[in-house]
Write a structure and sequence with these properties.
Two copies of one chain form a homodimer. Chain A has 13 helices and seven strands. Chain A is an alpha/beta fold and 320 residues long. Chain A has two domains: 280 residues, P-loop containing nucleotide triphosphate hydrolases (Rossmann fold), CATH 3.40.50.300; 29 residues, no CATH class. The first copy, chain A, has a seven-stranded parallel beta sheet, with helices on both faces. In chain A, helix 4 packs parallel to helix 5 and helix 6 runs parallel beside helix 7. Chains A and B meet through helix 3, helix 6, helix 7, helix 8 and helix 11 of A and helix 3, helix 6, helix 7, helix 8 and helix 11 of B.
Chain lengths: 320, 320
């Protein structure tokens, strides 16, 4: 890979160069270090926004509405689709595809599906680096769309400046989801499909859950602390999208102008670094698969003559 | 931890000893190695069955129906609930809880919720080891329930002898999910809620998707190769559960009596070992967080004066 040429193409937002660079990040090739080193000084301008929520809450429609909003302000927008069921990832039903068409043809919009599947923990290391590439490329807004089940919402929070958690009325799992850790990662909450029955009930339940979580905090209330807003949207008609964009901008300002905001930004940077450390170690773990003793040790574990921990120790001891 | 006492309690299936042992696995304490070493020779008898599928397909109801079935045959059953929204994990709505009550009070059933959340990739290392503990404890059947979105279905396949993928009619995401990698991990497919409209259409779509996937395989068809069955169940009434149990038993037999089956079992053992190798490395990554240079390097990455890969290298270079 001709790093200088790729970096030049990335800086010019050429789709082919962006695709090559992000693929290099995904594949974890050796060139990645040089590439990231070359683009690092150009990054730091974009607002990276994560959108997460269960399937069916309208993440893609909201993403699409936000794209339209930001394009109306003449901002460049990139989308990293980490949800394999998203229309942005090619997992669309026909109607969605047609709706997305406009954005795919707009040169001010770059859409990329992230192949995180199958690589254990892949999302956590590659997505922040892909976002950094797009940041260096000069995109003003980077939207990261992930499915909000399992670990991905924690990972998106590590990749994004601002994390939006989407819910929809009558999904049943609304409050289930909030129980399961989503309360902590959301900077902004959106109850989408607000024209449906039960929207205000969902808001009420969510507000209650958030207030309970706030009560648990032991530190005294800091007036500069971020208060998570709950917004109502109908993304399919664009209703509430401008207000959502306002809330996102307010959160971004908070990150840089307040003490708790800067602390949050530092935590995110630490999570990003830790993810790359982990990815580096993971590559070493994969390399151990090629160790000639690996298959024999695995068979011993399966047969019960050895436990997995001592087998792991045997493999790791001679590599270090 | 008094390893001998805990192992003795585990072998007697004492709930308190089982809980302590599994917590030790989850926490990754130093005692785990000795513990797993002590129980390893006793494991290898249980049938470990993974159940995965999107929220709402009826995983918990199916798990519950399988428990009843196996208890009717006087087999001991353990459940590892890795889905945080599952009633088995305490994320139940009231109705579910009441239905589960029977099992919670049955001494031949052990139910344990796995705290995988928040620990990146935690499921992959701890669940197979917890299953191995329960195996050594003499449970005949171990059911692992995971939410089938994201990486967890790959992880459950590494933990289980037999992986059941559940779908339900009219979920919309049925075929979306199959696209996203679930086809590869399923040994047995179940279309639950088969009394609903669209069940046969879901079966048809799934069969089509499976036949496409089979066509892609380059190797010539092996008559011993496993053919993934598609079963129809109504778990809430028990309909189809006996047939599901039959299919599970047939798959288990295939694993031990055929060449491709043994190859599959070896792959699983390799995945188990790799997960523990990775968990060991992950613990090292976490330890790096305490490195005095960590915060400074993270700030350099955030500020753009350094890329995350070279920062990771600095942290890792002096530890090895």
């Amino acid at each position: 890979m001709d790093i200088a040429a790729v970096v030049d193409g990335v800086r010019k937002r050429q789709p082919r160069a962006l695709a090559r660079a992000i693929s290099a990040v995904e594949d974890g090739t050796d060139a990645v270090r040089d590439l990231m080193q070359a683009v690092a000084p150009h990054a730091g301008h974009a607002h990276v926004i994560g959108l997460t929520g269960s399937p069916g809450v309208g993440k893609s429609t909201t993403t699409s509405a936000l794209i339209s909003h930001y394009r109306g302000l003449d901002l460049n927008v990139a989308v990293l689709a980490c949800d394999p069921t998203s229309p942005f990832s090619g997992g669309a039903i026909l109607g969605d595809r047609v709706r997305m068409q406009d954005h795919f043809l707009d040169p001010g919009v770059y859409i990329r599906s992230m192949a995180s599947r199958g690589h254990l923990g892949g999302l956590s290391a590659t997505t922040p680096q892909a976002a950094r590439l797009l940041d260096a490329a000069g995109f003003d807004i980077i939207l990261i769309e992930t499915v909000g089940v399992g670990q991905s919402e924690v990972e998106v929070a590590a990749a994004a400046d601002t994390t939006v958690v989407l819910l929809a009325p009558g999904m049943g799992d609304g409050i289930q989801a909030t129980k399961a850790g989503i309360l902590e990662v959301g900077d902004v909450f959106v109850v989408n499909k607000a024209d449906r029955d039960g929207a205000h009930e969902t808001v009420r339940e969510l507000r209650h859950a958030l207030s309970l979580a706030a009560d648990v905090r032991t530190r005294p209330a800091d007036p500069d602390e971020w208060t998570q807003p709950i917004l109502l949207t109908v993304a399919s008609t664009g209703q509430g999208i401008a207000e959502l964009a306002d809330a996102l901008a307010t959160h971004r300002q908070w990150l840089t102008t307040t003490e708790p905001g800067r602390a949050r930004a530092s935590l995110r940077a630490a999570a990003e670094l830790e993810a790359v450390v982990l990815a580096t170690l993971r590559a070493r773990a994969r390399a151990l698969r090629a160790d000639p003793r690996f298959a024999g040790l695995a068979a011993e574990v399966a047969g019960g003559s050895r436990d997995a921990y001592s087998a792991a120790e045997v493999l790791l001891s001679e590599r270090d």
